[in-house]
Amino acid sequence: MPWDVIKLNDGNVIPKIAFGTWTLGNGQQATDNVDQAIDVGFTHIDTAQSYRNEAEAGVAIHESGLAREDLFITTKYSGLNGLDVETSIQNSLQNLGVKYVDLYLVHHPRLAVPDIPTLWAKMEKIKQDGFAKSIGVSNFEIEDLQVLLASAKIKPAANQVLLAWASAKGAIVVTSSTKKERLEGYLDAGDIKLTPEDVSAIDSAGVAGARCMVVRSTLKRLVVVALVGAAVLGTCGYFGIDVL
Ligand SMILES: NC(=O)c1ccc[n+]([C@@H]2O[C@H](COP(=O)([O-])OP(=O)(O)OC[C@H]3O[C@@H](n4cnc5c(N)ncnc54)[C@H](OP(=O)(O)O)[C@@H]3O)[C@@H](O)[C@H]2O)c1
User: Fold this and answer.
1) Cβ of 136 less than 6 Å from ligand 1
2) pLDDT by residue (tens digit) across 11-26?
3) Residue ranges in the chain modelled with pLDDT below 70
4) Which pLDDT tens digit goes with each residue over 129-169?
5) What integer pLDDT is reported at residue 142 of this predicted model?
6) Is the CB–ligand 1 distance for residue 20 below 6 Å?
7) Which residue, by CA, sits nearest to atom 25 of ligand 1?
8) C or N terminus of the chain, fewer CB within 10 Å?
9) 3 state DSSP class of 105
10) pTM of the predicted model as reported, rounded to 2 decimal places
């Protein structure tokens, strides 16, 4: 199960695979799912203020009995309830029941109010105060990163984007599957070693697959148009309306 770690630009390391809590909802079920992920061997939990289940993750983290340094916890500033980032990080730490998170992200550039440099300076202070070991962003476009980097004292350690990709590409994989066997499968997949030829064959298959999807969906649309057209023509015919 060698899903090892990636070294971030600030020297900290992040496990290459994470369990995400986005779709888990609230209550005991959410805690049980995080419990299950930790039980099968996930050590990286990815949550966010807006997932509204940091507290459930916190319970599972504590029930795991693992030492704090044996877990990597990511959470995000999502602007929930209009709270500022200074208040939000304190709420997240309290919800998770920890003194620091390993990675704190700005969930989306639109949260950068009044602007990216102002919010990023506050993120830098959060890191300097020890509430986050690393700071980063999420869903940032190149232009957003350029604005950020122009004034940043600390460069973002990560830009989390939606991925369904693999470790061979240097990506960090996050899953939220509720099925134990799938979680075990994800970890086992860490043993699979792909050659550069394998990776490029998969890339080509992906491109071909994407083209097929476009063709399939275009065909589907044509079939729908044809069926609707036939229905309209049939109805027009029934009512004696001429279609020119
Ligand atoms: N920063 C951001 O803006 C952002 C955006 C999106 C996601 N994320 C993070 O990424 C995490 C994962 O995202 P996600 O929930 O979209 O990913 P996911 O792991 O692909 O889960 C989505 C659905 O796919 C199913 N699934 C997962 N693995 C499967 C498999 N091997 N075979 C068949 N079905 C499978 C799961 O159902 P089962 O439960 O039945 O397995 C789940 O309902 C989130 O929890 C969050 O932490 C971050």
Assistant:
1) no
2) 999 998 999 999 999 9
3) 1-2, 161-171, 181, 185, 188-194, 205-206, 209-244
4) 999 999 999 988 889 999 999 999 999 999 886 654 555 66
5) 87
6) yes
7) 177
8) C
9) strand
10) 0.78
Residues of the domain holding 185: 5-191
**Residues in CB range of 45: below 8 A, 6 or more apart:** 18, 19, 21, 34, 37, 38, 57, 61, 71, 72, 73, 74
What is the number of other CB atoms lying within 10 angstroms of the CB of residue 217? 10
Is residue 58 located within the same domain as residue 161?
A: yes
Active-site residue, 186 included: no
185 & 201 share domain: no
DSSP 43-81: -EEE--GGGT-HHHHHHHHHHH---GGG-EEEEEE--GG
Number of domains in the chain: 2
Tell me: do 27 and 113 sit in the same domain: yes
Q: Is 107 annotated as a binding residue?
A: yes
Q: Establish whether residue 36 lines the binding site of ligand 1, counting it when its CB lies within 6 angstroms of any ligand atom.
A: no
- Ligand 1 closest atom vs CA 24: 45
Q: How far is the CA of 174 from the centre of ligand 1 (A)?
A: 7
Q: Which of 147, 168, 191 is the last residue of a domain?
A: 191
